[in-house]
């Protein structure tokens, strides 16, 4: 019953947004000078804070319900793009009431869009409105999941991990942005009161798992000083090309133009490939993705055949495309960070066998992985069903519980058959309702 209630809650909350969007004077990221790095920022070290502020508007669930936090901060920091060049990115640090300043969770949202105005730093603000009324529903929905972590007292940092150009699927960039967002958070002690040496963990689902997974893969070489205790990767998307095949002509076809344009935002050769191959009559329709967020892309390209947009039907397997796509697939490096990987056995966006192969590769390379497959779910529902198991695993990492050596793999009808998961689920429902009712977010202290 509690599971059905939670599904109904998540299904019904976005309906509130079908009313006309609130009139807002919020400044979109592309027009906000905060996002522009100061002159000479290139000489700063990766993770150095370039600028900070309190978010222009309060943090709010679904842009409507203020989240009662102790404080919120935004940092502009120096990071690195796919080619090793310096760029700047923004992160949002959320501090709960009664915070445990020794615990830091970096949560990566599934932004999955080629429009910089879909960034969580903007989407989490009160009255944020872009791409029509429903455009920012998905990052706003994940704020509710973040609240479950905040209720445990953890400080949560949320990077705009697609970078300033919203380079969706440029996963090396995302991994750099995530790791530097942690460096910036650690350097924010004077602003946030966070410990300078906190216990650190990562969490991301779907597109967020790409950013978290690449951060885990790149950490030994890019940020070896970061002592990250674990990374939870849900709805993993190890390979890009199988997603194109699965998503085309499906309800998720909008992921394809968003992903192609996201790569074009980062890679000039992909931008040139699009320019050369787009059918002129389809160019305007394809270009809509530049101004759409995840929900807008899904609605705009629902069940469409993306192959009808291009002259060459083999464009995605061309030498140019293959080089970039393969470079941004998971599995190039073995993470030293312990991993919790959860995946729907019936995932209709990224086939489960791709994740099976990725986990096997990690395990062969000596990584520590706990891999759980869920038979009852599909891609979207596992984002909710997987929360209890994930929170329990992350809580162990935050509390210093040792990770078993080696790997484990299991498949269950549903993880919610675990009594412990049901308890956490019930707590999460209560936390969601309290968050929406403006109750203080954070652990309750008695006495």
TrEMBL record:
GO MF, one example: triacylglycerol lipase activity
Q: How far does the signal peptide extend, from start to end residue?
A: 1-18
What's a single GO BP term from this record?
Answer: lipid catabolic process
| Bilayer-spanning residue ranges | none
Record has Cell membrane as a keyword: no
Query: What domain of life does the UniProt record list for this protein's source?
Result: Eukaryota
Q: Which UniProt keywords apply?
A: Hydrolase, Signal
**Keyword Signal on entry:** yes
Write out the similarity annotation.
Belongs to the AB hydrolase superfamily. Lipase family.
UniProt-recorded name of the protein? Putative secretory lipase
Q: Which organism is it from?
A: Aspergillus ruber (strain CBS 135680)
Which taxonomic lineage does the organism of this UniProt entry have? Eukaryota, Fungi, Dikarya, Ascomycota, Pezizomycotina
């Amino acid at each position: 019953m509690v599971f059905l209630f939670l599904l109904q809650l998540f299904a019904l909350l976005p309906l509130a947004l079908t009313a006309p969007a609130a009139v807002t004077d919020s400044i979109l990221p592309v027009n906000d000078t905060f996002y522009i790095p100061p002159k000479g920022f290139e000489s700063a070290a990766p993770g150095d804070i370039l600028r900070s502020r309190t978010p222009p508007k309060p943090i709010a669930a679904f842009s409507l319900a203020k989240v009662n936090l102790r404080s919120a901060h935004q940092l502009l920091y120096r990071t690195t793009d796919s080619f090793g060049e310096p760029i700047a990115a923004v992160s949002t640090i959320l501090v709960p009431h009664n915070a445990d300043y020794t615990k830091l969770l970096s949560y990566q949202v599934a932004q999955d869009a080629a429009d910089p105005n879909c960034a969580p730093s903007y989407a989490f603000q009160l009255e944020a409105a872009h791409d029509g009324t429903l455009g920012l529903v998905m990052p706003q929905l994940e704020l509710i999941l973040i609240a479950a972590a905040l209720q445990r007292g953890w400080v949560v940092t949320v990077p705009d991990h697609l970078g300033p150009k919203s380079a969706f699927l440029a996963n090396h960039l995302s991994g750099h942005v995530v790791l530097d967002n942690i460096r910036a958070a650690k350097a924010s002690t004077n602003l946030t009161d966070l410990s300078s040496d906190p216990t650190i963990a990562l969490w991301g689902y779907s597109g967020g798992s790409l950013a978290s997974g690449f951060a885990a893969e790149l950490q030994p070489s890019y940020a070896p000083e970061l002592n990250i205790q674990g990374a939870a990767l849900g709805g993993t998307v190890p390979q890009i090309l199988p997603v194109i095949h699965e998503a085309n002509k499906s309800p998720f076809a909008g992921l394809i133009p968003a992903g192609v344009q996201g790569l074009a935002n980062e890679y000039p050769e992909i931008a040139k490939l699009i320019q050369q191959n787009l059918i002129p009559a389809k160019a305007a329709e394809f270009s809509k993705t530049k101004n759409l967020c995840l929900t807008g892309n899904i609605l705009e390209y629902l069940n469409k055949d993306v192959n009808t947009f291009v002259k060459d039907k083999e464009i995605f397997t061309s030498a140019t495309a293959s080089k970039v796509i393969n470079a941004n697939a998971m599995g190039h490096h073995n993470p030293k960070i312990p991993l919790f990987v959860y995946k729907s056995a019936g995932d209709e966006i990224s086939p489960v066998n791709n994740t099976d192969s990725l986990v096997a590769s990690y395990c062969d390379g000596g990584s520590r992985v706990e891999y759980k497959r869920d038979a009852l779910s599909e891609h979207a529902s596992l984002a909710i069903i997987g929360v209890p198991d994930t929170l329990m695993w992350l809580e162990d990492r935050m509390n210093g519980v040792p990770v078993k050596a080696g790997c484990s793999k299991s498949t269950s009808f549903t993880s919610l058959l675990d009594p412990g998961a049901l308890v956490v689920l019930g707590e999460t429902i209560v936390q969601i309702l309290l968050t929406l009712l403006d109750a203080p977010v954070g652990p309750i202290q008695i006495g």
